[in-house]
Write a structure and sequence with these properties.
Elements: E1 4-11, H1 17-25, E2 29-33, E3 40-48, E4 51-57, H2 69-81, E5 85-91, H3 95-107, E6 112-117, H4 119-124, E7 127-129, H5 131-138, E8 141-144, H6 153-167, H7 179-196, H8 205-213, H9 217-224, H10 229-248, H11 252-272, E9 273-275, H12 284-292, H13 297-338, H14 343-360, H15 363-379, H16 381-395, H17 403-411, H18 417-422, H19 430-439, H20 449-459, H21 464-488, H22 510-529, H23 531-544, H24 550-569, H25 573-597, H26 599-611, H27 618-627, H28 633-644, H29 655-661, H30 667-679, H31 684-693, H32 696-723
Parallel strand pairs: 1-4, 1-5, 5-6, 6-8
Antiparallel strand pairs: 2-3, 3-4, 7-9
Helix pairs in contact: 3-11, 5-11, 7-8, 7-10, 13-14, 13-15, 13-21, 14-23, 14-28, 15-22, 19-21, 20-21, 20-29, 20-30, 21-30, 22-23, 23-28, 24-25, 26-27, 27-28, 30-32, 31-32
């Protein structure tokens, strides 16, 4: 008996697959990205019956076609990892749509078990499913499960182990008829594929034939590298395509889909599914949707829910935020006490603690916000947000499928523009995809949130939640207005229709919410401890060197010595206080001049003549330049620059306190800076993602256009604010 076993969980989005994965693996899991594509993949581990089981959570997908990054990743992981068992997690309330993926998995020849998930929801709807009959018709084991409670979990693991031992890694061919027009050519193509061993080291011959008939770009690209047999297969496909077009006015791909759904429908009609009670009984989800997705009340409720999320974030997060800030303040004080003055102390205190610590201080707020987002997503409400926003997006020349890239990018603060850009692959229209790509970075991604939290806390401490709410709305407004502008000028084109299915509402489990929250929070912490740390050290070096010349250092030292000499001879308390304040002023002046003379200081000063129109001084310029690499760097750089520029920075408290105490940094400046950070050039990784999804021409366009657009609005905010 094998001591280890790999099980892959496949399934449609909203089938409860990831909830089941969390139930099976608990905290013993890790998240990564598939190489070259920003799509989350998860692996978890569970010990069952003295065997270590590796559970792979594939991206949610409706099929194994190559239309989206999720489909490509799911298929490639199945081929490359060759799991001993694949569990097709299906929504028991919607078998006909969910089993389509199961048919494709069986055609791929993989040992498969069907997990009828969310059986509690199915029973509430009066559905009774004959699992034994479904198993007989599909030729696959069927297990009833409830992912959020763990019901059926042990039965599923036991049947996975039995199937793996029985199958022994061998393929199990599965055939359905695709009608008199396609069956003969499929058989002919499969025979040629078998004869020449064309791609058969990866895929079953019949499956390859079907992929050619479906014009699967990835399989056909692989086939071109294998020799002339690919051209022969394409010739067969063209011949049958022409025949289908002339006789049926359709294409082979559509016929294949129709026959798969026909097979599923015929199976379900044999008595697999029976409905108890009245057939027109309205589900709880439908009742809730009458209010939550109402044409007028729905958007109002949506704004109220988002606003409440911000209020809860700041209300609950204020105390732990103070604890974390206090910890980093204590850590800095300890380093100052233990390490003598010099470059090492400066690096540790100003470069690392004040830099990275400024980013990590917001972890309590980030965790609370991510928990709220996880609740909205797991409950099914986020799908309703997408549904309601579709009506708005169409007005601005976008597609309903643009909703998810926007939401992922930070439509509700905390997202990331990189997977948001990747998600645009779901858009079939190249022009709608491009408009979405160029505007998604305007939204409040998780990297920008710490900047907004910092500035809102510094200048609007009693209205921080309101500020974050309105800055989020500004991001949406900017994205929509720019999208309308682009769709009316540079990327004109007709709109395409949008169809979306809403999943049922369900109550998330505390365990699932905690896992999802930790996954996102850990990515934030890990980024602060790696990328942000490295950039903070580089920027510290740029803000430290080359430093003052020996001659200027000597001049400042002479001034300090002169004041020190007067201080030693003074006896009156008033005079001593005045001289002590003068000495502090001279030292602060020296620190500020040293910072301005550094490489970063010179760059910041160089742009100050222009950026001053928006209220940005040379310190802010340094932070914004670093923000081109990653937006979190803005906080860490401000922390470093305010630490290096003051000898008594420890007396100023947190970075928010230092900003609020700076006479040159006003409320209007804070608002102007928030507007600019929200809208200016995407971070470097996002620029690369835009280039991959479109071209470098459009990626560079986003850098230039976004920065000019952001600066224009920031100038308007600052100038109007000063007048008011």
């Amino acid at each position: 008996m094998r001591s280890t076993l790999t099980i892959a969980l496949a399934g449609n989005p909203n089938s409860g697959k990831t909830t089941l994965f969390n139930t099976l693996t608990g905290s013993r899991q890790h998240v990564g990205n598939y190489p070259g594509i920003t799509v989350d993949t998860r692996e978890g581990f569970v010990e069952y019956n003295k065997r270590m089981l590796t559970i792979v959570d594939l991206p949610g997908t409706y099929s194994l076609s190559a239309y989206s990054p999720e489909e490509i990743v799911a298929r490639n992981l199945l081929i490359q990892k060759r799991p001993q068992v694949v569990v097709d997690v299906v929504d028991a309330t919607n078998l006909e749509r969910n089993l389509y993926l199961g048919v494709q998995l069986l055609e791929l020849g993989l040992p498969m078990i069907i997990a009828l998930n969310m059986m509690d929801e199915a029973e509430k709807k009066g559905l009774r499913i004959d699992a034994d009959l479904l198993s007989q018709k599909f030729g696959a084991e069927v297990v009833k499960t409830v992912g959020r409670t763990g019901k059926g979990k042990l039965d599923l693991l036991q049947k996975c182990c039995v199937l793996a031992d029985e199958a022994g890694g061998a393929s199990r061919p599965f055939f359905i008829s695709y009608g008199p027009d396609l069956d003969p050519v499929i058989d002919e193509m499969a025979a040629r594929i078998e004869e020449t061993s064309f791609l058969t080291r990866w895929y079953p011959a019949r499956w390859v034939a079907l992929k050619y008939l479906e014009y699967d770009e990835e399989v056909m690209a692989q086939g071109k590298k294998e020799g002339t047999i690919s051209e022969e297969l394409q010739s067969m496909v063209k011949k049958v395509s022409d025949h289908c077009e002339k006789t049926l006015n359709t294409e082979p791909e559509a016929i294949i889909a129709d026959y798969r759904y026909g097979f599923i429908s015929s199976v379900l009609k044999t008595g697999v599914v029976n409905r108890e009670g009245t057939s027109n009984r309205r589900a709880v989800s439908e009742v809730l949707d009458r209010f939550l997705t109402h044409r007028y009340a729905g958007p109002v409720l949506m704004f109220m829910i988002i606003y409440a999320l911000f209020q809860v974030t700041f209300g609950l997060g204020e105390i732990p935020l103070g604890w974390v800030e206090g910890f980093f303040g204590w850590l800095g004080e300890t380093c100052r006490a233990l390490i003598p003055q010099g470059l090492l102390r400066s690096l540790l205190v100003s470069g690392i603690i004040d830099g990275v610590g400024g980013v990590l201080s917001f972890v309590p707020l980030i965790v609370i916000m991510f928990f709220g987002l996880a609740f909205l997503e797991d409950s099914g409400y986020m799908a309703r947000v997408a549904y309601m926003l579709d009506r708005v997006l169409r007005t601005f020349g976008l597609h309903g499928s643009s909703v998810m890239p926007f939401v992922i990018s930070g439509g509700i603060p905390g997202g990331c523009a990189v997977p948001g850009c990747m998600a645009t692959r779901a858009l079939r229209s190249p022009k709608e995809k491009l408009a979405t790509l160029l505007t998604a970075p305007f939204l409040s991604c998780g990297a920008k949130v710490p900047v907004f939290l910092l500035l809102a806390g510094a200048f609007f401490p009693k209205a921080a939640a309101e500020v974050l709410f309105w800055i989020t709305l500004l991001g949406w407004a900017a994205a929509l207005v720019v999208a309308r502008l682009l769709r009316s000028t540079l990327i004109k084109g007709p709109p395409t229709p949008f169809v979306m299915e809403l999943p049922p509402y369900r109550m998330p489990t505390l365990k699932g919410l905690c896992i999802h929250t930790w996954e996102r929070a850990w990515q934030y912490i890990k980024k602060a401890g790696t990328i942000i740390l490295a950039i903070s050290i580089l920027l510290w070096a740029a803000m430290t060197f080359p430093g003052l010349s020996e001659e200027r250092k000597a001049l400042y030292q002479d001034r300090i010595d002169a004041v020190q000499q007067e201080l030693e001879g003074a006896e009156e308390p008033g005079i001593r206080d005045r001289l002590a304040a003068e000495m502090t002023r001279i030292r602060n002046e020296r620190k500020t001049v040293e910072l301005k003379q550094s490489l970063a200081g010179r760059m910041g000063t160089y742009f100050e003549s222009v950026t001053s129109w928006a209220g940005f001084d040379w310190r802010t310029n340094i932070a914004l330049i670093g923000g081109f690499a990653a937006k979190e760097v803005i906080v860490s750089t401000l922390g470093t620059s305010y630490s290096l520029g003051s000898v008594d920075s420890e007396a100023a408290g947190s970075l928010s306190d230092r900003l609020a105490a700076d006479p040159d940094f006003t409320r209007v400046t804070g608002l102007s800076l928030m507007v600019f950070v929200l809208l200016y050039a995407p971070c470097f990784v996002t620029v690369v993602a835009i280039a991959r999804e479109s071209s470098w021409k459009w990626a560079l366009f986003s850098v230039v256009f976004n920065t000019v657009f952001a600066f224009s609005l920031a100038v308007a905010v600052f100038q109007v604010g000063q007048l008011m």
